[in-house]
Recover the amino acids of this structure.
């Protein structure tokens, strides 16, 4: 039996950006972008679910993000996660990787005992690959990055295959451990239709607050209990629940890295010498390359 | 900020007693940064029987080397390495610490940043030192950490104004490696490794290295293909052209993500930076992160059906046309003319 916590992130679809998405303070206006489940995180969840299938245990997912990240948490349920946590508070906004890893490490302590912490290697919006190792450091955990496969787990030691520069490595890691998973490790399973029918109704605290505000016959406390009973409650963690958090270490002001300058990249076609795509044009080009001893 | 040091540190990654190219490149860059600060450049060498690695660093500009030599450090493992580096950085507060953005550097640098509460910027494509005014406050000699961000739509300059230690990672090939003409008399400062019960939490049981590692950096001719080729079958045209002209095959990130070509052939900010004599850019739109990895090529020939593609902005020669039409003609004519 192994308990896993998977750190997941909803990311802007950076491959499909349109319009002005940068705010004046240099941070990203995520509200303007289509949001998707970061793929490597999804593969990390798949690995965690396979550990559960093989050895038993539980899989909890946590994410730090705006309320709409609950859509991704529902997708985690559709794949088979047991429990989901949304870490969301305006005070977290603008956090860099250091501040984010601090919040995540406090949230993981709040969630409780675990054998594995999983994460994708990196998220496509920053590609930094920093939050996993930074969180491991804060939790005093060892780590295995670039994980491709968990071969087996025996006597609390996981045998893990990982990528290294120019090759591969097999390590034996004593649990508990933090793993970051790379693309291509395991194709995430499709959503279960049965689970969609159940968990599409899952609600965060913010959803329930909204319901209570809109209908005077509903009381928030009762709603929370009701959804917890039905196992449809997405635990919502704010600075109130994570009361150990030092607020000087979160958000924009708690982040050591600052965006000093942002230049938009204006791309336009342009200044190259044009070669006609004809045999004559290409032939002349080859002559030029041969004459200049660049080819041949 | 008061009492900051003028030390620039470069973490030297090594394997079997050979320093990684990226570490030597960072020493060359670190030399310039240290000169700009009127400071010193230190190489940080961890490993087993690696005194020769420490000595090598002087040829690339290091003023001194900190050497931690112990059998536990023979192969990189996160905990013993990060534990020793955390201690060194906390005790000495170097002004700048640079790591290669390799699998090792990307695992190690964040741990050290997390422990020492330092700012860290990944995959910088340029590093400069300048006085900065940020939120109406003046800062002297800050490290500007410059990188494309957000799908290449912006170039961001990141600073860590209020921290004594500024950290960054840089990909292999981004900075140029320069040998120092007359290395100064230099010193190696040995630091004792302190064993810890956590050292053996992760054990390496097997390790493989592929011998025929693609080396795009040393190829004088490169043929790079992009997502615009549409299919893996069509990407074969890139291989055909590379074979005809004696070049190495490469791809854009989108082509790698689509599975057209392996990741170790990726050019760009999150891949390799190349400076070949000639590069063919086929079906590549020319996003800023890609350009960061190839714009210093001596000659760039772009083949793209879209006349507005940004690749034409940096290409020296542009062929507006489909790869399916242009490449077979090119190969045919080239073979004919060579005879």
């Amino acid at each position: 039996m192994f308990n896993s916590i998977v750190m997941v992130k909803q990311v802007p679809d950076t491959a499909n950006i349109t319009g002005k998405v940068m705010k004046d303070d240099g941070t990203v206006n995520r509200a303007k972008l289509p949001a998707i489940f970061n793929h490597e995180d999804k593969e990390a969840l798949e690995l965690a679910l396979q550990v559960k299938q093989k050895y038993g245990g539980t899989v909890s997912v946590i994410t730090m993000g705006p309320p709409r990240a609950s859509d991704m948490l529902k997708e985690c349920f559709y794949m088979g996660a047991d429990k989901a946590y949304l870490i969301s508070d305006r005070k977290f906004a603008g956090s860099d990787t250091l501040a984010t890893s601090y919040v995540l490490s406090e949230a993981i302590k709040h969630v409780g005992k675990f054998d594995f912490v999983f994460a994708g290697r990196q998220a496509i919006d920053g590609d930094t690959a920093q939050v996993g190792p930074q969180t491991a450091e804060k939790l005093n955990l060892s780590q295995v990055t670039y994980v491709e496969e968990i071969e087996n787990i025996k006597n609390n030691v996981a045998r893990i295959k990982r990528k290294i520069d120019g090759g591969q490595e097999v390590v034996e890691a004593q649990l508990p451990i933090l793993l970051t998973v790379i693309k291509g490790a395991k194709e995430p399973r499709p959503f279960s239709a049965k689970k969609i029918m159940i968990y599409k109704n899952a609600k965060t605290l913010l959803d329930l607050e909204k319901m209570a505000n809109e209908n005077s016959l509903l009381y928030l406390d009762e709603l929370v209990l009701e959804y917890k009973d039905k196992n449809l409650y997405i635990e919502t963690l704010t600075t109130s629940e994570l009361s150990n958090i030092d607020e000087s270490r979160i958000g924009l002001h708690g982040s050591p890295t600052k965006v000093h300058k942002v230049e938009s990249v204006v791309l336009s076609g342009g200044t190259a010498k044009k070669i006609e795509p004809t045999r004559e044009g290409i032939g002349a080009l080859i002559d030029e390359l041969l004459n200049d001893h660049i080819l041949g | 900020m008061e009492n900051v040091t003028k030390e620039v540190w470069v973490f030297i990654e090594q394997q079997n007693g050979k320093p990684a190219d990226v570490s030597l490149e960072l020493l060359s860059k670190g030399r310039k940064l240290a000169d700009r600060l009127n400071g010193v450049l230190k190489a940080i060498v961890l490993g087993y029987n690696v005194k020769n690695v420490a000595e090598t660093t002087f040829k690339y500009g290091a003023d001194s080397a900190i050497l931690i030599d112990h059998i536990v450090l023979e192969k990189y493992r996160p905990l013993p390495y990060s534990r020793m580096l955390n201690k060194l950085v906390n005790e000495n507060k170097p002004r700048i610490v640079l790591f290669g953005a390799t699998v090792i550097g990307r695992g190690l640098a964040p741990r050290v940043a997390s422990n020492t509460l330092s700012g860290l910027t990944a995959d910088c494509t340029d590093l400069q030192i300048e006085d900065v005014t940020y939120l109406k406050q003046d800062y002297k000699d800050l490290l500007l950490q410059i990188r494309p961000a957000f799908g290449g739509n912006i170039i961001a300059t990141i600073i860590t104004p209020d921290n004594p230690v500024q950290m960054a990672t840089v990909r292999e090939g981004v900075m140029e490696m320069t040998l120092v003409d007359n290395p100064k008399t230099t010193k190696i400062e040995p630091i004792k490794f302190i064993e810890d019960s956590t050292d053996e939490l992760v054990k390496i049981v097997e390790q493989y290295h592929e011998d025929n590692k693609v080396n795009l950096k040393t190829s004088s001719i490169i043929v790079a293909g992009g997502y615009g080729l549409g299919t893996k079958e069509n990407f074969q045209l890139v291989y055909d052209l590379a074979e005809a002209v004696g070049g190495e095959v490469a791809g854009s990130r989108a082509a790698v993500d689509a599975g057209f070509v392996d990741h170790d052939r990726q050019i760009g900010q999150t891949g390799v930076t190349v400076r070949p004599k000639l590069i063919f850019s086929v079906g590549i739109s020319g996003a800023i992160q890609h350009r960061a990895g190839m714009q210093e090529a001596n000659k760039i020939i772009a083949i793209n059906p879209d006349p507005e593609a940004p690749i034409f902005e940096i290409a020296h020669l542009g062929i507006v046309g489909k790869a399916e039409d242009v490449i077979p003609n090119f190969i045919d004519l080239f073979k004919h003319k060579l005879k």
